[in-house]
Amino acid sequence: MKLTTPPPAGYVQVELEGEDVLHVLHPKAITAFQGAPRSREDRFMDLGGVLRKKRWIRSRLQGPSRFLMGLPAGYTLEAIDIPEDSQLLFDFRHVAMFTDGMTYKAKIVKWKTAWITRELVRIQFTGPGMLGVLSAGDLATIQLHPEQPLFVDKNALIAYPEQAEIRLSVYGNTIASQHMNVQWELKGRGPVLLQTGSRDTGLEDKLTNDGWLKRLLREVLPFGSVYIK
Length: 229
What we know:
Number of helices: 6
Oligomer: single chain
Order of helices and strands: EEEEEHEEEEEEHEEEEEEHEEHHH
């Protein structure tokens, strides 16, 4: 399987060779398909998939073929290799596709972790295979350390190792801890997958020099969108 994201971002192109088989969990995002019509077979998802993805149908695509998949604004899709002994627990909402032969199962997280994260279940994939992961902005990987904590914005964490130690926390001095988003403090071994898209709307306003007053004037004044930059 070959996955490319041509500039500008906004879609990915996936090419399946020979007997490659791919399961796509968001069939309506497929905007174009080139291959034998019988190479696409839509199926009903299992009940667990329906409840977690809020979708009834998934597509099974077979090579040789290629297709385009549209992405939400500001999102990227990256293919990551999943080994046979992977211990990563995924937020299923971020999984867009996976190669045939992989299996997945719901894992009930430790009660202490569930109380902190408000998530009772995460999904563990078993390879070998390839997983297509959706993220706001780019997808980053950071290795955990058993002693040195990693602090992660609670909205950024996509996957973490099953045996990771997790606490709810903030860090820094008093001012920092009072003005940051809630953080997950993680220790352990193995990779953590993060989405890197900024959630700081104030940063975007400053970069575009687009404060609330300008936005209001654009809406209220005649031809405001033309004269007010």
